[in-house]
């Protein structure tokens, strides 16, 4: 690999910070409040020690696993992320092609910048649709029905955003969707000409799933009306797998099992919503202990390496999802950078498995 190659998530972040406008980088990178939630989860992840084992034949290792009975070539997929095309034009479809290549789920955000129909086609079916409840819910259920009609079999309801968290870095830059370009943003874009010219050429990113719906989605609109009754309605409407994402409480996890969901996803939304939320990696272990070994539990938030992936699996996750680090890689080096980071995380995981005496990811 030449100069500027990506060998780790930190490499990707460093390069992305250099290449993206400040407004866009801080939108991708930022978190709620003073960002102590990010630090708390990173400290919790850092404090987990894996158990080294010696003199075991670990020459033949497999990173493959199963998710909802389907084979996946990696135990990590792509978390739903809004407006990925801000990282680089075509980012959504880069992620979709990656999902197809490794047979892993690509979480398609309600606020993706590419239509959900195009993403599932490019992902060759390896796509799950992520849903936000907002307003009175009428648009929410229309989107779920649309996803079902085009072949999505798994729906991910994100429940940890009753109100959008305040992220000061983002607010200081005046970040809004759609963009409002004032003098501050103009200067920011002018100082990052590579991104600005490329984005101008390809057209500014939009929330593509709403251009066909006849109404505008306001990302700051209250989502506070969602209740357990909302979940019950969605369960009745959705015939496929239903995942609830954003769970950080044992009692809530238990109630979700009773409500008939197919899996829960332990997540703090990357600490972007509630700064004082508990470290999700710690809650993962508690939720797994309470639910027992069989119920499907997924995980995202704070993962930065293959060792982090193995830690989450060791703490009880059946499958994990990577988020903003994939956007860093795309911002840094496009599809080449994404492939480099995916390879690095795979290698880190494989080496960590060897060091801990594991040849497979079966619990």
Automatic annotation (TrEMBL):
Keywords: Flavoprotein, FMN, Oxidoreductase. InterPro entries: Aldolase_TIM (IPR013785), Alpha-hydoxy_acid_DH_FMN (IPR012133), FMN-dep_DH (IPR000262), FMN_HAD (IPR037396). The keyword tRNA processing does not apply. The keyword Flavoprotein applies. GO terms for molecular function: (S)-mandelate dehydrogenase activity; FMN binding. Glyoxylate binds at residues 27, 132, 167, 269, 272. It is an enzyme of class 1 (oxidoreductase). Pfam families: FMN_dh (PF01070). Signal peptide: none annotated. The active site is at residue 269. It comes from the Bacteria. Residues 1-363 form the FMN hydroxy acid dehydrogenase domain. Its EC number is 1.1.99.31. PROSITE patterns: FMN_HYDROXY_ACID_DH_2 (PS51349). Its cofactor is FMN. FMN binds at residues 80-82, 109, 130, 158, 245, 267, 300-304, 323-324. Belongs to the FMN-dependent alpha-hydroxy acid dehydrogenase family. This is (S)-mandelate dehydrogenase MdlB. It comes from Phaeobacter inhibens. The lineage of its organism: Bacteria, Pseudomonadati, Pseudomonadota, Alphaproteobacteria, Rhodobacterales.
